[in-house]
């Protein structure tokens, strides 16, 4: 297992390019299961989670080839409808194959994903929705077994706007008979990206990006040649890195329209942000102001940026409060940040952060994807050396993060973990 070693204290400067969005690529690659034929995707990030979905598609009989940021998938020979535990336990988002498999193969068997470090993360809303579309669902031996003769359009109301739940139902409904209406749907840019690709494939979806999505079922879908949108969370993480180190960084190939909540909060901390259609420049200035943040479904402040902003606020003037409303256990990075000198108190879903003058480098352990990014940011700002271990969490969702930061002037390198006696 690799470690990342950072010598803190360098202001970042220069240009950096954002890669394709993990959370858009995952449902879009799963959508290839909806029809047979040859797909080509560009701007697919090189990540462990993307490897996991590619392996899963291959298990189902798809031919998957990768090279130069492109993924070619041929789903003509699909012959299997099971997502086994060994694969689903590596990545919860494997549940995204459930809707497409059911729509195309009329049956699916997918291991229940279970909880993860950040919360229990049930999938009841996915399953209720599929039942409303006419699927028979049974939970047996740790698996969801779903079957149908033909899915039929329905009105589905989500108690909570769920991202992958909305995606699963949207995909299943494309081949249903009649019209499906998803209410209180998630509105993330990744939902719009998936709907765009499904529409290119011949689906009839309107309203994606609003709380009400209408899907008129069609008889056939077709393969497409398309590209993945930029990763707004990678862009946001780089923005925080620039502000935190009082740097000046031009972030290219991103979509500033997807980053409004992040820009708004970053400006309140005192950073200067300028944007054009496809890039942003972030300049960190003088002292960092304390602010309060509440995570919300899009277009609110993303839970996937909470840990990174916590690092920034750890070295701000005064007190900040972060309220996490999406996941019940997404403060696991706090104990590691405290070991680096941060003054953070947790009370239920609130983190009270008293800004300190500086953080001090320490050996720390990554516990989940966004927590790993926060520890790397903390290392960039800290005095002395920080060693982040268990970076396989980082590799699930950040493409070459340490290389991108090094190109911006950070003293950061990846090394194979030292064998401890
Ligand atoms: N929920 C339920 N029942 C369900 C589904 C969700 O109660 O059937 C609850 C969840 O427990 C949570 C809330 O609804 O409290 C929202 O969860 P959601 O379903 O939206 O999360 P997700 O689809 O599992 C996606 C991203 C996450 C991101 C969340 C929130 C992907 C592959 N994953 O997860 O990304 O944090 O939306 O925006 O799109 C990450 O990239 O690090 C990551 C965790």
Structure description:
The mean pLDDT is 96. α6 (163-174) packs parallel to α7 (189-200). This protein is of the alpha/beta class. It folds into two domains: 2-19 and 230-416, UDP-n-acetylglucosamine1-carboxyvinyl-transferase, Chain, CATH 3.65.10; 22-227, Enolpyruvate transferase domain (UDP-n-acetylglucosamine1-carboxyvinyl-transferase, Chain, Alpha-beta prism). It has helices at residues 22-30, 48-59, 85-88, 98-105, 124-132, 163-174, 189-200, 232-244, 260-268, 306-314, 334-339, 369-381, 392-397, 401-407; strands at residues 2-7, 13-17, 38-42, 63-67, 70-74, 82-83, 107-111, 136-140, 143-147, 155-157, 179-183, 204-206, 212-216, 225-227, 248-252, 272-275, 280-283, 293-294, 319-323, 343-347, 350-354, 363-365, 385-389, 411-416. Strands 22-23-1-24 form a four-stranded mixed beta sheet. The chain has a four-stranded mixed beta sheet with strand order 2-15-17-16. Strands 4-5-3-14 form a four-stranded mixed beta sheet, covered by helices on one side. The longest helix is centred in the middle third of the chain and has 13 residues, at 232-244.
Feature tags:
421 residues, alpha/beta, UDP-n-acetylglucosamine1-carboxyvinyl-transferase, Chain, 2 domains, 4-stranded mixed β-sheet, 31% helix, globular, binds uridine-diphosphate-2(N-acetylglucosaminyl) butyric acid
Unreliable runs: none
Ends apart, CA distance between termini: 15 Å
**Envelope shape:** globular
**Total E-strand runs:** 24
Helical proportion, percent range = 25-40%
The secondary-structure class comes to alpha/beta
User: What ligand species are in this complex?
Assistant: uridine-diphosphate-2(N-acetylglucosaminyl) butyric acid
Mean pLDDT, to the nearest integer, reads 96
SS strand fraction: 25-35%
CATH-derived architecture of the largest domain: Alpha-beta prism
């Amino acid at each position: 297992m690799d470690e990342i070693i950072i010598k803190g204290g360098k202001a970042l400067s220069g240009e950096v390019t954002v890669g394709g969005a993990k959370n858009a690529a995952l449902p879009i690659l799963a959508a290839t299961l909806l029809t047979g034929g040859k797909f080509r995707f560009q701007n697919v990030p090189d990540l462990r989670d993307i490897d996991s979905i590619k392996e899963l598609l291959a298990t189902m009989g798809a031919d998957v080839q990768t090279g130069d940021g492109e993924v070619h998938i041929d789903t003509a020979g699909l012959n299997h409808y099971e997502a086994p535990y060994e694969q689903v336990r590596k990545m919860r988002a494997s549940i995204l194959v459930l809707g497409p498999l059911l729509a195309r193969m009329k049956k699916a068997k997918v291991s229940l994903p279970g909880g993860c470090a950040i919360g229990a993360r049930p999938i009841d809303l996915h399953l209720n929705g599929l039942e409303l579309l006419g699927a028979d669902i049974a939970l047996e031996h740790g698996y969801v077994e779903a079957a149908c003769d033909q899915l039929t359009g329905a009105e589905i109301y989500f108690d909570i706007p769920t991202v992958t739940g909305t995606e699963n139902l949207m995909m299943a409904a494309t081949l249903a008979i009649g019209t499906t209406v998803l209410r209180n749907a998630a509105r993330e840019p990744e939902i719009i990206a998936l709907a765009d690709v499904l529409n290119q494939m011949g689906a009839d979806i309107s309203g994606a990006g609003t709380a009400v999505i209408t899907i008129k079922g069609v008889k056939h879908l077709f393969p497409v040649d398309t590209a993945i949108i930029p990763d707004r969370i990678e862009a946001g993480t780089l923005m925080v890195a620039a502000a935190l180190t009082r740097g000046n960084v031009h972030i290219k190939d991103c979509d500033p329209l997807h980053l409004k909540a992040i820009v708004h909060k970053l400006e309140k901390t005192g950073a200067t942000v300028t944007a054009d259609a496809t890039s942003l420049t972030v300049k960190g200035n003088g002292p960092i102001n304390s602010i309060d943040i509440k995570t919300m479904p899009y277009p609110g402040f993303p839970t996937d940026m909470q840990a990174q902003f916590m690092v920034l606020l750890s070295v701000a003037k005064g007190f900040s409060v972060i309220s996490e409303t999406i996941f019940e256990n997404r403060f696991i990075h706090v104990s590691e940040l405290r070991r680096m000198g941060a003054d953070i108190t947790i009370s239920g879903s609130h983190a009270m952060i008293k800004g300190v003058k500086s953080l001090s480098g320490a050996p720390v352990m990554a516990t989940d994807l966004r927590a790993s990014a926060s520890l790397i940011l903390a290392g960039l700002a800290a005095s002395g050396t920080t060693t982040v271990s268990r970076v396989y969490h980082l590799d699930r969702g950040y493409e070459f993060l340490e290389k991108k930061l090094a190109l911006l002037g950070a003293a950061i390198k990846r090394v194979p973990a030292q064998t401890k006696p």
